[in-house]
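Lecture notes, unit on protein representations.

Consider one protein chain, 151 amino acids long.
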Amino acid sequence: MVKVEIVEEKEQNDSRSPYSSPASSRTSSSVSLSSVGSELDGEESFYERIVALADIIPPTTRQNISSRIGKTAGLLKGTGKVVGNLVWILTTSALLVGLPLALVLEDEAKIVQQEQEMLAQQQGAQMLAPPGSGLYPTSGQPQKGVTPPGF
């Protein structure tokens, strides 16, 4: 938006100049310009301003801008599709391979923990039992651990 500002000039007695005007005409024109400017500001939308730029930018430049925007949008769309497919492949692969693996590892950890608890119980019972009772094998006999099925 252009702001009109009145520049006061020194009073010249030379009224023969075609560019000189009386002070009253200068103020009346500025008042009318300010009223026109304020009316246009409220009614003009952003879209109307963009449409008005079409008159300023030459058609070849507009065509170049339009083609570049189209190419960029196509490139972004293609890139987004490829990235989306890669993410889909990785997540489904992780679910199909990783989830069963995690379940097997969890089961193995439970079995190892149960073996350690049973071993601790046997050692505690050996300490409490009299040494010749034969209830639990002595240290001379080999101890068998709990073997999970399939191993």
